[in-house]
Recover the amino acids of this structure.
C-alpha cells in the first residue's frame, strides 16, 4: 500500500505547480492566491519562501537553471535566484485573468493556459523560443495539467471544469497540436481533474480537486491505481529525486482544514514504485 507522507506541513491556500529542479535537487512550488514561491531541499528536509509578489500560476525550468514564472495579465518573467527579468510584460486579452499551469515541450517552447473570467473564456497559448505568442485553443474553462506521451506522439491537456483530459496529436517540429479527443472523462461527485504528469511507462497521473485522491491511468485511459490523501483538494504532482522514483504532491485548502482535511495545504511525498522522467526545459529567449 502506497502511503503519502507529509514533508511540508504548511497550510497553503492553494499549493500548485510542483517542479523538480535536477541541478539543485530541490522541489519548487507556488501558493497561487498568496503570490508566493517555495523551495524544498530533501537533503536537509527544509523549505523556504523564495519569492513573494504577484500570483504565479505556472512554472517551467529554463535550460540555464533559472525558472520562468507565468503570472497575471499574461506576464512571463525569468526568475534567477531572486533576480527577475520580464520576458513578456502582458498579453492584452489576458489583463483580467492569470496563467494556470505551464509545461515546456522538447524544443523549449512553453504551453500555458489562462483562466476563464465572467466576460471571457480561457485560452491555451504556445510561446515559442523566439518569444512569439500563439493561441492554440480557445473557449476553455479552467485549463490545467498537461503532459506528453513518452514517444512524443501525443499531448495531453486537462480542462478541469469540463472534467476531461484531452489527447491531441503532437508535432514536435512545429509545436502544433491537432485532432483533439476526449481521453479521460471523470464522473460527477468525485472531484475534478487538476494537475497531471506522465510517468516513464506512459501512464497518466491526475490529481483530483475536491476528490481526495491521486489517480494513475493506463495510456489507453483506464484507471489503474488510486491513492487516498487526508486532504480534499489534491492539486498536482511531479516526479523527482536523483532517479525520478519519488513523487511529490501538492494540495490546497490549508486555510480551512476543519472542512478540507487534516493534511489540506500540505506537501506530500510518496514512493509510487514507478519512475517518472525529467520535465523538458524551456528555452524562451530573453530580449
Amino acid at each position: 500500500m502506497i502511503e503519502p507522507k507529509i514533508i511540508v506541513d504548511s497550510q497553503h491556500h492553494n499549493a500548485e505547480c510542483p517542479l523538480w529542479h535536477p541541478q539543485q535537487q530541490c522541489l519548487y512550488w507556488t501558493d497561487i492566491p498568496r503570490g508566493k514561491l517555495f523551495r524544498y531541499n530533501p537533503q536537509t528536509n527544509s523549505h523556504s519562501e523564495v519569492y513573494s509578489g504577484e500570483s504565479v500560476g505556472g512554472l517551467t525550468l529554463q535550460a540555464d537553471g533559472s525558472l520562468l514564472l507565468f503570472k497575471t495579465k499574461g506576464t512571463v518573467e525569468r526568475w534567477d535566484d531572486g533576480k527577475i527579468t520580464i520576458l513578456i510584460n502582458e498579453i492584452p486579452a489576458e489583463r483580467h485573468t492569470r496563467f494556470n499551469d505551464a509545461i515546456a515541450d522538447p524544443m523549449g517552447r512553453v504551453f500555458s493556459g489562462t483562466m476563464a473570467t465572467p466576460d471571457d473564456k480561457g485560452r491555451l497559448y504556445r510561446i515559442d523560443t523566439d518569444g512569439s505568442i500563439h493561441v492554440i485553443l480557445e473557449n476553455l474553462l479552467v485549463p490545467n495539467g498537461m503532459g506528453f506521451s513518452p514517444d512524443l506522439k501525443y499531448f495531453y491537456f486537462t480542462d478541469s471544469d469540463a472534467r476531461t483530459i484531452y489527447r491531441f496529436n503532437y508535432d514536435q517540429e512545429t509545436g502544433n497540436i491537432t485532432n483533439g479527443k476526449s481521453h479521460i472523462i471523470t464522473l460527477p461527485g468525485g472531484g475534478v481533474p487538476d494537475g497531471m504528469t506522465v510517468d516513464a511507462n506512459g501512464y497518466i497521473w491526475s490529481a483530483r480537486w475536491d476528490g481526495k485522491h491521486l489517480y494513475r491511468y493506463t495510456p489507453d485511459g483506464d484507471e489503474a491505481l488510486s491513492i487516498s490523501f487526508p486532504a480534499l483538494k489534491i492539486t498536482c504532482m511531479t516526479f523527482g529525486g536523483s532517479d525520478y522514483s519519488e513523487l511529490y504532491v501538492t494540495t490546497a485548502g490549508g486555510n480551512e482544514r476543519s472542512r478540507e482535511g487534516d493534511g489540506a495545504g500540505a506537501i506530500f511525498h510518496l514512493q509510487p514504485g514507478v519512475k517518472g522522467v525529467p520535465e523538458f526545459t524551456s528555452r524562451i529567449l530573453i530580449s
Observations:
- The chain has one domain: 5-270.
- The chain has one helix and 24 strands.
